Amino acid sequence: MSSEKTVRFFNDGGFGNNLFQYFAAEIIKKIYKYDKVEPTPYINLEFNTVINDELFVKIVNEYIRGNIYEIDTAKDILLLGFFQRSEIFAHERDYIRSLFTKENNNYISNRIRISNIFKYQTNHTVKSSENDLTIHIRLGDFYDKAENKTQIYDPEYLKNIIKTIEYDKLYIITDTIKEDWEKEYIKEFEELNPIILSGRLGDDFDFLLHSKKLLLSASTLGWLAGYLGDVTEVHIPYNSYYGGHNSPNQSLAEFSPECKVYYDTEYWMPSNQNL
Predict the structure, then answer these.
(1) Counting Cβ atoms within 10 Å, is residue 120 exposed (0-12), middle (13-18) or buried (19+)?
(2) 184 forms bridges with which residues in the sheet?
(3) What is the C-alpha radius of gyration for the chain, rounded to an integer number of angstroms?
(4) 165-201 burial, b if ≥16 CB within 10 A, otherwise e?
(5) In a 3-state reduction of DSSP, which class is residue 185?
(6) Is 52 helix (H, G, I), strand (E, B) or coil?
(7) CATH architecture type of domain 133-262
(8) Closest Cα to residue 12, out of 21, 24, 4?
């Protein structure tokens, strides 16, 4: 029987969520000196010490202060949550970026390794240059018709931010535009003559990852691209949808001096909410 101690993370959500879960597991592994990390499709509460989002915040806050929060380390650890907290990711950015390499064959899900991200061949035929600005706009599931809620940032609000940024070309990375309300939203940016790109997940993440100037949506995908890439400017409207900094849930603000955070975020709803 192996004596290695493992930090397992339960896969929940999409690519961005899985990356956060994997990196959080690596942070916990480092704090408690475990041996390895791996994803799991199973929730086993009996043989694991469980860390959820609330406990994760307590652990990392103590760690940032130079202390170790006491947990049961006789068992393997199971992470159950999303762990999207910029304070610890900013604190451990050098460490996390050292793991983001083509040599890292660890899985972030049951089918994607870190090394796969580097091997991916993009289908986008254009590239942003040093002084181009890329906006990431997440539509689709960020407008909840049933609950009449949205995490989509108001176009006028975003355009006011854009006015403060010096750039050459403007790129918009977004979902494939299908519904009328999505067309309504994108049309708001026509006056800026953007180049709109919609590809597969790997295509869009690759473009964001190699962009030097970013204006982000509420999506984890763009935030991680800025965090892992070599950016010169990152503009972050702060998404308080999940409760913000004072909750144990998502709180994604600055991660480096290249970031500018806007805490006056305004959200958008379709003009015809029955679309």
Answers:
(1) middle
(2) none
(3) 19
(4) eebeebbbbbbebeeebbebbbeebeeeebeebbbee
(5) helix
(6) strand
(7) 3-Layer(aba) Sandwich (3.40)
(8) 21
Which class for 111: exposed (0-12), middle (13-18), buried (19 or more C-beta within 10 A)?
A: exposed
Q: What is the pLDDT along the chain (275 residues), one digit of tens a residue?
A: 458 999 999 998 899 999 999 999 999 999 999 999 999 998 988 889 999 999 999 999 999 999 999 999 999 999 999 999 999 999 999 999 999 999 999 999 999 999 999 999 999 999 999 999 999 999 988 888 888 889 999 999 999 999 999 999 999 999 899 899 999 999 999 999 999 999 999 999 999 999 999 999 999 999 999 999 999 999 999 999 888 888 999 999 999 999 999 999 999 988 765 33
Structure tokens at 208: 């964001």
Instruction: Give 271's DSSP letter.
Output: S
Q: What are phi and psi of 224, to 5 degrees?
A: -65, -35
Reported as type and span, the H/E element at residue 206 is helix 201-209
H/E segment holding residue 136: strand 133-137
Stretch(es) of the chain classified as CATH 3.40.50: 133-262
Neighbours of 132 (CB within 10 A): 17
Amino acid, single-letter form, for residue 246: N
Lookup: tokens for 220: 């984890």
Close Cβ partners of 3 (under 8 Å, ≥ 6 residues apart) = none
